[in-house]
Amino acid sequence: xxxxxxxxxxxxxxxxxxxxxxxxxxxxxxxxxxxxxxxxxxxxxxxxxxxxxxxxxxxxxxxxxxxxxxxxxxxxxxxxxxxxxxxxxxxxxxxxxxxxxxxxxxxxxxxxxxxxxxxxxxxxxxxxxxxxxxxxxxxxxxxxxxxxxxxxxxxxxxxxxx
Length: 162
Fold this sequence. Notes:
single chain, 162 residues, alpha+beta, four-stranded antiparallel sheet, 5 helices, 4 strands, 49% helix
């Protein structure tokens, strides 16, 4: 309810239906797994209002970037997932750039003294009969884990400028 997107069950059901749709066989599924960076730090410093702002901001960014048919869900506390069926193999780079631009725009205009960011693992796979969403999410989550290992732990805009 907070984020206005699918919950875990709704997301898994909807995305599995898309993968099972015979019209999507041999098209591509771009699967992204995103984690709100430093949510605990934001909650500790700015309270749950700050945490809610970070979560709704991540949801809004994903909804904006994947507005062209993306299925978006909040999978767990600070984790989100996206599946969008596409025809072009260049989709990965396109969406990565759109996510970066939308995040930068949010942080430039939010009026908050902290940044809201996400680590995102993204994979592009050709849809085949019998494909399971859980397997695709595992692949994207493994890529997310690699990115999380290199992220900064600071959130304040002023400290990032130094």
